[in-house]
Design brief:
With 88 residues, the protein is an alpha/beta fold. Helices cover 48% and strands 18% of the residues. Strands 1-2-3 form a three-stranded parallel sheet, with helices on both faces. The radius of gyration is 13 Å and the shape is globular.
């Protein structure tokens, strides 16, 4: 991971929040941010895929955490944001 981080850009010491980050494009973006050195908080609806994704990122040496939330429900956005702040 260090070569990627040094060669492109460094996000060491930064925290990134990726909604929909447990699959598809969101997971790809979260992975790239982790490889660049960011601590990544993945926000998604499915607990099982969140756990798998965070485990993958940690196994690769990244710092990752998760928040389970359905952000289509506007009433959950503030609560999810508070939970994100608690992760890192």
């Amino acid at each position: 991971m260090a070569g990627y981080r040094d060669g492109v850009f460094s996000l060491d010491g930064r925290v990134a929040v990726v909604t929909g980050g447990s699959s598809g494009i969101g997971k790809g973006m979260a992975s790239a941010l982790t490889m660049a050195g960011a601590s990544v908080v993945v926000v998604a609806r499915q607990a099982a895929t969140l756990d798998e994704t965070v485990s993958e990122f940690r196994a690769a040496g990244g710092a990752a955490g998760s928040v389970r939330a359905d952000l289509a429900d506007r009433s959950r956005i503030s609560e999810a944001a508070a939970q994100v702040r608690e992760v890192f």
